[in-house]
Design a protein that fits this description.
Number of helices: 1
Strand order of the largest sheet: 1-5-6-8-9-11-12-13
Strand content: over 45%
Length: 234
């Protein structure tokens, strides 16, 4: 048992030593995380006028997942360059609505535009102190899918007034295939093990939509992402 603990301690020391990543070394980092995203210039969504009351839904951000990998080259103790490849679920949405108007209860849920991208970020890292870095760079995104979905339910006193439907339709052909953004953020590597916590804000530079329709002009991606990765030397 004593030998086992000694071997475990030696493994921890070895991992810690590798976690320092000296200048001239390569590392790779698989990562998982989550996004909070929205599209700039998205308007509120009008439902119309019911019982002399005008109703519209407020725009709101949506949550999504991110999975990917990042390779990093340590140029100096305080500076490195990194390039990644990840699948990112992004988009924008509107608030839920649940209210009884006259004799009918109206429910609007999961009202959102879903966008999915294969993103390729390239960032420069400046290490202010051991394990903590600030970063900035450029990111190219390739559109994989785009769909609009909403679930609407109408409940009334009569059976004929009860209706529930889920709408899900692709609008990929109406979106640009390539998206450019600027990622800025910070990361921190845990001292004893090579686990990296990374927080970034991706500011969209290019329009998502091909055509600027009334109320939907210059839609651009905005993404706050938080990831956790495991970094090891190649």
């Amino acid at each position: 048992m004593k030998k086992f603990f000694m071997m475990a301690a030696l493994m921890v020391v070895a991992v810690s030593a590798n976690a320092q990543f000296e200048p001239g070394t390569f590392s790779i980092q698989p990562k998982l995380g989550a996004n909070i995203s929205w599209l700039s210039n998205t308007p509120n969504m009008p439902l119309g006028e019911f019982d002399n009351k005008y109703i519209e839904l407020d725009k709101s951000p949506i949550a999504g997942a991110l999975v990917g990998v990042e390779a990093e080259y340590q140029l100096a103790n305080m500076f490195s360059l990194a390039a990644g490849l990840n699948f990112s679920m992004q988009g924008s949405g509107w608030s839920d609505f649940d209210e009884k108007i006259s004799d009918v209860k109206i429910e609007i849920k999961d009202n959102k535009m879903n966008l999915s991208y294969i993103n390729v970020p390239v960032v420069a890292n400046v290490y202010l102190f051991k394990g903590f870095a600030i970063k900035a760079g450029v990111q190219v995104g390739f559109l994989v899918g785009a769909n609009y979905e909403v679930t609407a339910t109408y409940r009334g006193d009569k059976a004929s007034q009860n209706l529930s439907t889920k709408f899900d339709q692709s609008f990929k052909d109406e979106c640009k295939k390539v998206d450019l953004s600027i990622p800025i953020g910070v990361s921190y590597q845990v001292p004893t093990i090579p686990i990296v916590i990374d927080a970034r804000y991706n500011l969209g530079l290019t329009k998502v939509n091909k055509e600027s329709e009334e109320g939907y002009k210059d839609l651009k991606n905005n993404v706050i992402q938080l990831t956790v990765g495991y970094k090891f030397a190649l």
